[in-house]
Design a protein that fits this description.
Layout: E1 4-7, H1 11-23, E2 27-33, H2 40-44, E3 47-52, H3 63-73, E4 77-79, H4 89-97, E5 101-102, H5 107-114, H6 116-125, H7 142-152, E6 156-160, E7 170-172, H8 178-193, E8 198-202, E9 208-216, E10 222-234, E11 237-243, H9 252-268, E12 273-281, E13 287-293, H10 300-307, H11 311-319, E14 336-343, E15 345-346, E16 352-353, E17 356-357, E18 360-362, E19 369-373, E20 380-381, E21 388-396, H12 399-412, E22 414-416, H13 422-428, H14 432-436, H15 443-447, H16 462-473, H17 477-482, H18 494-500
Parallel strand pairs: 1-2, 1-4, 2-3, 4-5
Antiparallel strand pairs: 6-7, 6-8, 9-10, 9-12, 10-11, 11-14, 12-13, 14-21, 15-16, 17-20, 18-22, 19-21
The structure holds ligand MV4.
Length: 505
């Protein structure tokens, strides 16, 4: 059994994993690229080793360098976090070959879920509902795909077998568009993944993205920790996540069905460790398997806050060969959690990345507030990695309470030096559609704007918000009315704020 863990990642998730290791009494090894020499994850670890230049291919994506550090430092296990090598079956296999424990699922499970055509076939065979579409696992000719499209019925979606997260995806509404759509999708898939296989699914319109957290130990016990709502996203980047889903609401029967299907999906590939099963849910609450993420996810904290389960600690315990400490009956969702991803990007300028020195970083604290971050005042925000500065996660007894708390926390949050998407979150938390839980995956792109007040985009109108929130959340009218009271929200300019600071800050 291992006692020393290498964290093959950076930023907030590296810090999160380090904290779990510390609580479990494990020794830790950090790795870092040249621009991360002074990063928080380097400071928090017992030991830290350089990997090389900033580009990920020369640092956090370089398997040989990371395995060499593991050997040199005596780390017997590697936690990959998310992104980078987390869902690379070759890396999981390489760890195994070197006698190092990969804190995650088997290379076979990663590979099975990574190939979306294979995943669909395995899910269907296991009785997991999949979106109607092509069934083959081998390459289909354009002619076969065109015939299949007619059988499925337009509109259809062309998806890359090696895809996921929206890459190489195309909507096709008429038969005439098929040949060019297939060609473009294949080209995109080939250059992005080196695999030009594509498949078809019927297009599910006005879908919501709902995912289920699962945990499985190596003794065959698999449980779920309920669902997360992830429909508030832009260009396949999630911006706000919550648990539970307002669309599932108090439909316990639907929640249990989602959970049971997710467990079935995990069992179908002999899944061990933490994973997430993604579903599309249509307007009639039919749900379909979309893909399985075989890693810890960015949004795992919302599930932690409503279930009380430390998912990262469970991952490590499972990898150490321990049995799950919970059975399904032990898991209850209590209250409501919301996460806002705080990114270094300019919401007023098409969410352009914003780089530079973080002159001041003062995150909110207080009751029900959790901030997972890897940054600090004085740190440089570089263009080399993702723009995530921090995850602001709040818990409340009800959705309304969680929203009010999030608004309070966003007001408290002071960041100087780089632009952030905090104004986006403040605006979203004042939209009556968001308050009412009436949104799908197209909401940000089609019905939300940082500038105009065009059709469908409205700041909270007190009576409408109160009415909708009351109807939808079945809250008392008093609580619903509370939610729209804005007070002095975000009115203090950052310039004024900056002027009040005294050096040294
Ligand atoms: C879909 C879909 C509608 N119908 N498949 C986007 C990312 C990839 N994981 C799958 N995606 C979608 N697949 C069918 N048959 C709509 C999406 C989709 C989406 C899914 C989840 C979260 C956000 C999304 C935004 C746009 C489209």
């Amino acid at each position: 059994m291992f006692t020393k863990v290498l964290i093959a990642n950076r930023g907030e998730i590296a810090v999160r994993i380090l904290r779990a290791c510390r609580e479990l009494g494990l020794r830790t090894v950090a790795v870092y690229s040249e621009v991360d020499r002074t990063a928080l994850h380097v400071r928090y670890a017992d030991e830290a080793y350089p990997l090389g230049p900033a580009p990920a291919t020369e640092s956090y994506l370089n398997m040989e360098k990371i395995l060499a550090v593991a050997k040199k430092s005596g780390a017997e296990a590697i936690h990959p976090g998310y992104g980078f090598l987390a869902e690379n079956p070759d890396f999981a296999q390489a760890c195994k070959d070197e006698g190092i424990t990969f804190i995650g699922p088997s290379p076979e499970a990663i590979a099975a879920m990574g190939d979306k055509m294979q995943a669909r076939a395995r899910m269907k065979a296991a009785g997991v509902p999949v979106v109607p579409g092509t069934e083959a696992t081998e390459d289909l000719s354009d002619q076969e795909l065109i015939e299949a499209a007619h059988r499925i019925g337009f509109p259809v979606m062309v998806k890359a077998a090696a895809g996921g997260g929206g890459k190489g995806m195309r909507i096709v509404r008429t038969p005439e568009e098929m040949p060019s759509a297939l060609q473009l999708a294949r080209q995109e898939a080939k250059s992005a993944f080196g695999d030009e296989r594509v498949y078809l699914e019927k297009l599910i319109e006005h879908a919501r993205h709902i995912e289920v957290q699962v945990l499985a130990d190596s003794f065959g016990q698999t449980i779920h920790l309920g669902e997360r709502e992830c429909s508030i996203q832009r260009r396949h980047q999630k911006l706000i996540e919550e648990a539970p889903s307002p669309f599932v609401g108090d439909d316990e029967e639907l929640r249990q069905r989602l959970g049971q299907v997710a467990v079935r999906a995990a069992r179908a590939v002999d899944y061990v460790n933490a994973g997430t099963v993604e579903f599309l849910m249509d307007q009639d609450r039919n749900f379909y398997f979309l893909e399985m993420n075989t890693r810890i996810q960015v949004e795992h904290p919302v599930t932690e806050l409503v279930t009380g389960v430390d998912i990262v600690k469970e991952q490590i315990r499972i990898a150490r060969g321990r049995a799950l400490r919970y059975s399904q009956q032990d898991i209850r969702m209590q209250g409501w959690a919301i996460e806002a991803r705080i990114n270094a990007e300019d919401p007023y300028n098409d969410f352009m990345p914003s780089i530079g020195t973080l002159l001041y970083h003062s995150p909110p604290t207080g009751p029900g507030v959790r901030v997972d971050t890897g940054v600090f005042t004085g740190m440089e925000i570089t263009p080399y990695y993702d723009p995530l500065i921090a995850k602001l996660i709040v818990w409340g007894e009800t959705r309304a309470q969680a929203i009010l708390r999030m608004r309070r926390a966003l007001e408290e949050y002071k960041i100087l030096g780089v632009k952030t998407n905090i104004p986006f979150h403040q605006r979203m938390l004042a939209q009556y559609r968001f308050l009412a839980g009436h949104f799908d995956t197209r909401f940000v792109e089609e019905r939300f704007s940082m500038t105009d007040h065009h059709a469908g985009v409205q700041e909270t109108h007190p009576e409408i918000a109160a009415l909708l929130a009351t109807l939808v959340a079945h809250e008392a009218a008093r609580k619903a009315a509370q939610i729209i009271r804005t007070g002095n929200a975000g009115r203090t300019s950052l310039w004024k704020w900056y002027g009040r600071l005294r050096p040294p800050f």
